[in-house]
Amino acid sequence: MPHTLDAATVRTWCARALDALGSARETIDAINVYPVADADTGTNLYLTVEAAAQAVEAAGAGEPTLAEATAAMAHGALLGARGNSGTILAQLLRGLAGEIAAGRDLRSALHGAARLARAAVAHPVEGTILTVATAAAESAERAGGGDAEVARAACEGARAALAATPARLPVLAGAGVVDAGGYGLVTVLEALLTALTGELPAAPPPERVRPAGSTPSVFPGCAAGPEAGPKAGPEAGPDAGRESGTETEGPEFEVIYLLDATEAAVERLRERLDGLGDSLVVVGGDELWHVHVHVDDAGAAVEAGIEAGRPHRVRISHLAGRHAAPEPVERAVVAVVPGEGLARLCDEAGALAVTVRPEEPPGSGELAAAVRRAHAREVVLLLGGPELRHTAAAAAEQARAEGVRVAIIPARSPVQSLAALAVHEAERRFDEDVVAMTAAAGATRYAELTVAERRSWTTQGVCQAGDVLGLIDGDVAVIGGDLTDCAAEVLDRMLAAGGELVTLVLGGGAPDGLVRVLTDRVRRSHLGVDTVVYEGRQPSPLLIGVE
């Protein structure tokens, strides 16, 4: 029986959309030729919806209203938006949430979403996700009945517009594909219809068309024959001449950041960024904005954000369409760590670091993207904590499906990751290297000093908010009031069982003199034990490893 749109349906919608994009991600990546043929639109949309779904799940604990659920979905998408299409999708969700908060129905919400998304793009181009969104909204407006009928009409209009995108954007016609972002939006809308009705799409949208004057495609996203490549032209937009894996014209960097700023400051920022590059999309509101632009001078784009307000979560990446793809190496290590200092240590050791931010764990798509960036035939995925094991397993499955051999080292602490990385030898056979790294991680006892945020029960009794907790191998072993004293007691307990090397990783809130006290203690009381100290910049004040 069809449902009306409510908070529970929004939750189901997000889950369905995430599953559907997970299945369609490779297809969407393969047909990605506009605005940059960098084969990541599917991944970016997946990451954006993953962030939205996580936000809705977090809001679900308090039995939210429909307006609260859609607001959480939009806010999560804004924070987690990736790429051009992901940023536009985040604005579509924000527009939908705004209309629902104003008391309007799904029909009006879809119309408002399409209008707001189009306004966020500096130079809208037809034949893209914007065209598909507009067509979906127009079909929904003409629909009779309730939310299910409106969603069904929106899906039908979106599918028809998607099929027509090659006729509106020459670069798509030349490549023989429909628009990747539009394909992703159809997938999201069909997930909404499924959430409302329980009906599954009869078939996935067609992703390819036969380019005029060419033979059928041989490789995904590419048509055979001399006329098959993307054709640059005045109608195709500034990025239409780029081809994946070749040296072509166009901005070199993609710059993305969140920005705390007033609306007036953002309007000035739009004008400045529009003069620096292209593919400019600025979405958001209420003094929190998500900025996306392609530029040659990444520093200037960030400086413009600093002048407008406070940029954070800055991401700068090379556009794949500007440079030839590097030749893959035989083996690489991807290390997931919770601090910039730890990330730098991993980088210096030759690993590709993924930095985990507080309360923002990476999704499986983000880890899979990191594995791809390693450009290796074999990848060791080195975790910094047990909470990521399921996410890492999903990422590994994605990478294996693409022909990459992946092994996961189940480190339970960043100090175990450092120990594993220290014995990594790319010249060894893959299995032998994985076994050696796993053994090194397992042979390292680990501890963490942190501060309790609230009163709670522990294995050592009740702790109060503000108490210092010393955890050894994941369990609370010490409760105290002074971090240095607690750290010294934790270290003594760990070394009571022996050890040859102590690793101290300093994070936020580590008091002055802590290192001196602990290193002096080791030198006086534990002969023959060496100590190394790193600036980890992780959220907890101190990590300790004993090998």
Could you describe the 3D structure shown?
By secondary structure, this protein is α+β, with helices and mostly antiparallel strands. The protein has four domains: 201 residues, DhaL domain (Serine Threonine Protein Phosphatase 5, Tetratricopeptide repeat); 66 residues, Alpha-Beta Plaits; 114 residues, Phosphotransferase system, mannose-type IIA component (Rossmann fold, 3-Layer(aba) Sandwich), CATH 3.40.50.510; 102 residues, Hypothetical Protein Tm841, Chain: A,domain 3, CATH 3.30.1180. It is 47% helix and 20% strand. It has 19 helices and 18 strands. The strands form five sheets. A six-stranded mixed β-sheet has the order 15-14-11-18-16-17, with helices on both faces. α1 runs antiparallel to α2 and α18 packs parallel to α19. It is globular and about 80 Å long. About 7% of the residues have low confidence.
Put the structure in a nutshell.
The chain is an alpha+beta fold.
Number of helices: 19
Number of domains: 4
Mean pLDDT figure: 85
What separation lies between the terminal Cα atoms? 60 Å
Say which CATH homologous superfamily of the largest domain is assigned: DhaL domain
CATH class of the largest domain: Mainly Alpha
- Net shape: globular
If classified by CATH, what would the architecture of the largest domain be?
Alpha Horseshoe
Structural class label: alpha+beta
Range of strand content:
15-25%
Instruction: Give the CATH topology of the largest domain.
Output: Serine Threonine Protein Phosphatase 5, Tetratricopeptide repeat
